[in-house]
UniProtKB/TrEMBL annotation:
Pfam families from the UniProt entry: Pkinase
EC nos: 2.7.11.1
Biased composition (Low complexity): 334-350
Protein kinase domain location: 12-275
Chain residue ranges for the region called Disordered: 325-367
Keyword NAD: no
Protein name per Swiss-Prot or TrEMBL: non-specific serine/threonine protein kinase
Keyword list, A-Z: ATP-binding, Kinase, Membrane, Nucleotide-binding, Serine/threonine-protein kinase, Transferase, Transmembrane, Transmembrane helix
Gene Ontology molecular functions: protein serine/threonine kinase activity
Transmembrane as UniProt keyword: yes
Taxonomic classification: Bacteria, Bacillati, Actinomycetota, Actinomycetes, Pseudonocardiales
Parts of the chain that traverse the membrane: 295-318
UniProt organism field: Kibdelosporangium philippinense
InterPro entries registered for this protein in UniProt: Kinase-like_dom_sf, Prot_kinase_dom, Protein_kinase_ATP_BS, Ser/Thr_kinase_AS
SMART domains linked: S_TKc
């Protein structure tokens, strides 16, 4: 189709091309009958596609029109008409004068928190409208989220949406959707569901707030492996916003956040933002999910599963020394700023802050866990000594300590080995500080290092993998280290 062509018995005049995607071209056109501009999506298929496959794709486009026509929500793009001419199928849609979320982030970087919350709320509304109609979108992703200048959000492309009532249109074993936004259960072969749409919503919000895709990898197999085995690491999101994203990205659809829980956390995050306070931890409506590796091997036969080793992911552990000196010691639950400095400047100028003293706890000992002083902590398995990190917040683990790094877990040990019962904070503090100090005293160059001791909260203790104390060091002068402090 070219500029100046007419469709729909002359009703629609094509003006110009707006964009292209994997399945079609979007044109700007004018509805000559009503006198309004519209967007027309033309199904675009390879010339060598088999006739039976072409029929399947054409039916998918028709279903997109039927699907969108059944939905009524301000955040869903309206389909006005369907035209079949010149051997192709065209959808006549509401014209949205907006850029998609992917392009916005590419041009301007991460989205501000208040706008992320608005996006989350509007997308949730669109998905709930679809789910009430027994429709699953199946392809929620940044490029399908349109943002206009007034903050309105539109969810586009229900072309691969599958009504629970409709028969499948895809071949057996075929996954439809963008690989980095496909939920773990769908990779395991389960049907798409409202819960899988919510997982994709979480991945989309991660992209919006962090500025990159949580599971972007150099290849599709690597992306699948990351979705099935890795836990995302949040840098900019804290408190209820972090709990929202992590709860949506729960690998188990049975314990993943539902719509009501998502709305609760959106409200909590908005209250914190409106009050002008840093986002601290709030109680979630369920425990944060644990990584589920048991079912992975059967699915990812296409992926070379790499033994990743044990990882500890910390968010919001450290803060700039300059801010500390100006504001004084942090109180429990406070998090770093939503707008951190660049990694290089943070590494050069930051140092861990003292913990708020609790009981007989020294200022260099902090509790970790969802209800601890260090929140947004996910223990995948166990943090092995000699694990080095770039950034004082331990967001990017580096297993090879020959790479320049800012912090290192140089020691860990099991607490209360005798019975396994929760020993109480005072007992753990005494044991952890003594053991970490003993290990610290054996380090070469200890006079230039800063020691931090981490212990679990009672809630974190319920996870068997968290019943340990961790010994962490950074440079006293806030410069980077090369090589393990243990001399390995």
């Amino acid at each position: 189709m070219d500029r100046g062509d007419h469709l729909g018995a002359g009703r629609y005049r094509v003006l110009e091309e707006l964009g292209r995607g994997g399945m079609g071209v979007v044109w700007l056109a004018e509805d000559l009958t009503i006198g309004r501009r519209v967007a027309i999506k033309e199904l675009l298929l390879p010339h060598n596609i088999a006739p039976q496959e072409r029929q399947v794709f054409e039916e998918r486009v028709m279903r997109e029109a039927r699907t969108a026509g059944r939905l009524n929500d301000p955040a869903i793009v309206t389909v006005h008409d369907v035209v079949r001419e010149h051997g192709s199928t065209f959808l006549v849609m509401e014209l949205i004068d907006a850029k998609n979320l992917s392009d916005v982030v590419a041009q301007h970087g991460p989205i501000p928190v208040d706008q992320v919350l608005s996006i989350a709320e509007q997308l949730l509304s669109a998905l709930e409208a679809a789910h009430r109609a027994n429709i699953v979108h199946r392809d929620v992703k940044p490029s399908n989220v349109m943002l206009d200048a007034n903050g309105r959000v539109k969810l586009t492309d229900f072309g691969i949406a599958q009504s629970i009532e409709d028969p499948k249109l895809t071949s057996s074993g075929t996954l439809i959707g963008s690989p980095t936004y496909i939920s773990p259960e769908r990779l395991l072969g389960q049907e798409a569901s409202p819960a899988s749409d919510l997982w994709a919503l979480g991945a989309t919000l991660f992209f919006a707030v962090e500025g990159y895709g949580a599971y972007e990898r150099p290849s599709t197999p690597a992306a699948i492996q990351a979705i099935m085995n890795e836990r995302v690491q949040l840098r900019r999101a804290h408190g209820p916003l972090a709990n929202l994203i992590m709860g949506l990205l729960d690998p188990d659809p049975r314990t993943r956040l539902n719509g009501g829980q998502v709305r609760y956390l959106i409200d909590q995050a908005r209250q914190h933002a409106t009050a002008g306070v840093q986002q601290g931890p709030v109680p979630t409506t369920k425990p944060m999910p644990k990584n589920k590796r048991g079912a992975v091997i059967a699915v990812v036969a296409v992926v070379l599963i790499v033994a990743l080793g044990a990882v500890l992911v910390f968010s919001g552990v450290f803060e700039s020394k300059q801010k500390q000196e100006a504001a004084g010691p942090q109180t429990s639950g406070q998090q770093p700023s939503e707008n951190p400095t660049s990694e290089s400047s943070t590494s050069a100028k930051s140092t861990p802050p003292p913990a708020t003293a609790g009981g007989n706890r020294a200022a260099t000992t902090k509790t970790y866990g969802e209800d601890g002083e260090i929140t947004n902590l996910q223990v995948v398995m166990s943090g092995e000594p000699g694990t080095c990190f770039i950034g004082l917040d331990l967001n990017e683990p580096k297993f090879d300590c020959t790479v320049e790094h800012d912090t290192e877990i140089f020691g860990q040990f099991q607490l209360n080995r005798d019975s396994g019962d929760y020993p109480g904070e005072q007992s753990m503090v005494k044991e952890a500080e003594a053991e970490c100090k003993s290990q610290f005293d054996g380090l070469a160059g200890k006079d230039k290092l800063k020691l931090w001791t981490l212990i679990p909260t009672k809630t974190a203790w319920e996870d068997l993998r968290r019943r340990k104390a961790l010994c962490v060091v950074s440079k006293e002068d806030r410069t980077r280290m090369t090589g393990s402090v243990k001399g390995n």
